[in-house]
Amino acid sequence: MSEFEPKIVAFLCNWCTYVAADAAGVSRFVQKPNVRVIRVNCSGMVDPSYIVKAFVSGADGVLVGGCWPGDCHYVAGNIKAMRRAPLLKKLLRELGVEELRFRLKWIAASEPSQFAKTVNEMTEEIRKLGPFKRKKKSAKRSAA
Amino acid sequence: MSRVTFDSLRWRDPPARATVTVDGGPPRVRLQMTTPREVAAMCVGRPVEELPRILSILSPAHHLCAAKALDRLFGIDPPPAAKNTREALRLALVFRHHLRKFHFLASSVESPFAEFWPEGARRGPHGLRPLLEDVMRHVSLAQEAAAILGGRADHPVTAVAGGVTRALKQEHHVRLAEIAVACRTFAERLGAYLRDRIFSLGEILGDVREIDAGPVSSLALAPDADSVVLRDGRGAEVERFASAALFDKVGLAQESWSHVPFAVLEAKGSQGQGAAPAEGLFFVGPLARLNGGEPLATPLAESERKRLVEALGPFPRFEVVAGYWALLIELLSAAEGLVALCEVEKLTGPALRTIPKAPGREGHAAIESPQGLIYQHFRADERGVVEEVRVLDTATANNALFGIVAQRAVETSLAREQGWDETKKRMELALLAY
Amino acid sequence: MNRGDRQKKKLAVYTATGCRACEQGILDLNYEVNELGRFADPVFWPYVLGTPWEALPGDVDVALFAGAIRTAADREAALSLREKSQLLVAVGACAAFGGLPGLANLADSAAPAEAAPTMDAPDDGKPAVPALEPEAMCLSQVVPVDYFVPGCPPTQNLLWAAVLALVCRGESPSRLSYAAARLPEPIAEAIASGVLPPRGTIFAGEKAVCGSCSRVKEEKKFGTCKRPYEAYQETGRCLLEQGLVCQGVATQEGCGGLCTGVGVPCRGCFGKAPAIFDPGAKMVAAISSTFDSAKAEEIAGLVDGFVDLAGTLYRYSVPAQCSLLAAPAATPDQGCDRCRG
């Protein structure tokens, strides 16, 4: 009986996180193979609909990777991502998507080890949570 | 044992069906509400200020009741212009609701969809076609008034915590005044027709007019607008209590065969619903409001009330024709009230909404909706999220009364050896009166 | 009597679980716009004509179905009317997306049943009441639906547009102006020509409510999150920009900006705007774009002020448009997913 292998969709920004992911591969960091990468120009172009659609389409987890605030190639695109994430997390929580399934992470191009670490941590966290199944009815009303 | 089901009773809101079971002895009639209302499921977990818009699914008046309950929860008093606007909306809704019933009554013999042709036009034996149109024209006017005041007539939106959100423009004031006067004039005209052709001669109602639902206790709002008055089957005041205590005095009994519970007086307990009036039952509505026999504040309505007493006898009254007559009386008083309220000074002011500091934890309110007294009570947490909501709507309050009326309609029909089609019509006409 | 050779369309009107506002709106058309009897023969209308189920004919042309599917009887009614009608139209937010009854799907499943325990034993000769389905559903989650007229309740002009296009088929002498409703071309053409609009058409506008809203939109941002009981400008400035949750940006237009026009925020009763995948996600994007901060703690503080996102952003559309809640098992509707994600 095989272990549950989470499917994680990762939206990685072209200028920082994607480079870091690339470098992590080239540097042969040991990484779990559970991540499917979608390269975007900026973390700020990741509309919350993409994240929701990823879950609806069968993802067990979603990672959005962006440049550190201040380093965005488009000046403040990553701030847009930063503004969206907490509100989206709140909505996801109300609809039964556990906190750890969605993560927004700043990873610089010079931090491939961070990328590998994030991938590995997320995979294990979500493995523990199990596959994402859409609830029939919402399990929890808005608590916070 | 034989059973007949009338699965599509006309004019019922919420939808209802009646099952008649004959098992040797007298028929046993059950009026079943077939759709659930699920107030708690819709409201618990919602921000408390959203309740006026959510609860309007029960009836438009619930929107107003929820806003009033929110005033209490937030500990604020709406400005006078806002109170007047809400009351004007309530009166417009009363007018529309009662007038629709007369449309249904008139259309019970003449189909509202009969095609009109000048030569050989199907006018029916009563010449009701022009009346139907006149009635609906004024339903439309009342609806327009409600839309001006409430944003929409059904599912209104403008009543919020602390007041109303809409400032009326000059053209609205003019239009409201016009509509109010038109409605008052029409109500007088309609009254003449009803007295002449329906209440007395009974052409449409026939002997349905005599079906009697009582004696039953009545529950109505006191003039101070916060106390509730309970009268017994003889019209005598039994108790007067603050609306906050309503769910101490009124309990809800659930039966497996209806989605809507039955309201009972806790003091008397429930003896189940049966052919004989049970002491624990009560009803609400236009007749319940009039059953104290007290004079009314506005002249046309008061004259009409006196005409009813002259024709049928003193209050309390419970028979079908009194129910329809009560609708007419309230049409007049609502129109007169609207004429008085729809004045620019009454509906305008420097502020239309009192802004609260923070949500409290508990609110409640009772108002007289067109169909009868309604009551809401909610509790919210420290963030203003609804934790508990209890509503007494008229479907619940009158559930027992409707059952009694349905039972008596069937009994009188069987006594006259009528067929089931006739019986169904009698039941529909009888239920419509309350 | 027929007018010439033109046959009157057989019309059925029914409400499942909801309220009677949609049916009253259809009845009002008869008096406010044009006599329905000239081109339609209401063969099944329990609310107004008392038609029993056994009298439902097998060749209904157009069935106008309001109300959500909440009980077994609602489901049977949907199946029956679908089988016997050529065109089935979901009228009102309840039938189109689930409506307010759909909020029951957000309720705590562990909570006690709505009603107090019953006083009697259910099976001692008493008639049964229709059983509750495990969740509330919209019409298209039970049967294939041909057209949708959204709104809570639908506006008269859109109801009339639907009747014109689907029942009158271009032969009614009466027209209303649709400038306010900003109707899409296919519907306007259908009304004029008598050709049916494409199956799945929603009788509503083309864009979002903002297109019809008369409020002033500026670019400034606010660092606030407001609940509607707090102070705000009831007229003038865009409500979303003032810090309120107003769902006009994610909601299909057609109402003419009714609620925002009277000073209350839109709550989405026309369903999601075309080209939106999930209205909740869209609203998250819209709301967070008004946050005037670049600091994580400040943003967290702002977000803390929002309560009941799910119940607000999907107020009328939990069953049909909340993509993160599972759709019911059997969704027989293949051709009609414009109302869903």
Account of the 3D structure:
The complex is a heterotrimer of chains A (144), B (434) and C (341). Chain A has 144 residues and is of the alpha/beta class. Chain A has one domain: Rossmann fold (3-Layer(aba) Sandwich), CATH 3.40.50.960. Chain A has four helices and four strands, in the order βαβαβαβα. With 434 residues, chain B is an alpha+beta fold. Helices cover 44% and strands 17% of the residues of chain B. Chain B has a four-stranded mixed β-sheet. In chain B, strands 1-2-3 form a three-stranded antiparallel β-sheet. Chain B has a three-stranded antiparallel β-sheet with strand order 12-13-14. By secondary structure, chain C is α/β, with parallel strands linked by helices. Chain C has two domains: 5-204 and 328-340, Rossmann fold; 209-307, no CATH class. Chain C has helices at residues 21-32, 46-49, 72-84, 92-97, 156-168, 185-193, 258-261, 279-288, 296-304, 309-313, 318-321; strands at 9-15, 40-44, 60-66, 69-71, 85-91, 132-137, 147-149. Chain C is globular and about 65 Å long. The model of chain C is unreliable at 1-5, 110-116 and 331-341 (pLDDT under 50). Chains B and C meet through strand 1, strand 3, helix 1, helix 4 and helix 5 of B and helix 1, strand 2, helix 2 and helix 7 of C.
- Proper CATH architecture of the domain at 77-211 and 319-355 in chain B: Orthogonal Bundle
Number of strands of chain B: 14
CATH superfamily of the largest domain in chain C: NADH:ubiquinone oxidoreductase-like, 20kDa subunit
CATH class of the largest domain in chain C: Alpha Beta
Query: How is the main sheet of chain B built?
Result: 4 strands, mixed
Major sheet attributes of chain C = 5 strands, parallel
Q: Tell me the name of the CATH class of the domain at 77-211 and 319-355 in chain B.
A: Mainly Alpha
Globally, the shape of chain C reads globular
**Mean pLDDT score of chain B, rounded?**
91
Q: Ends of chain C: how far apart?
A: 46 Å
**Which percent bin holds the helix content of chain B?**
40-55%
CATH topology tier name of the largest domain in chain C: Rossmann fold
| Gyration radius of chain B, in Å | 22 Å
Return the domain count of chain C.
2
Give the SSE order of chain C as H and E letters.
EHEHEEHEHEEHHHHHHH
Number of alpha- plus pi-helical segments of chain B: 14
Structural class of chain C: alpha/beta
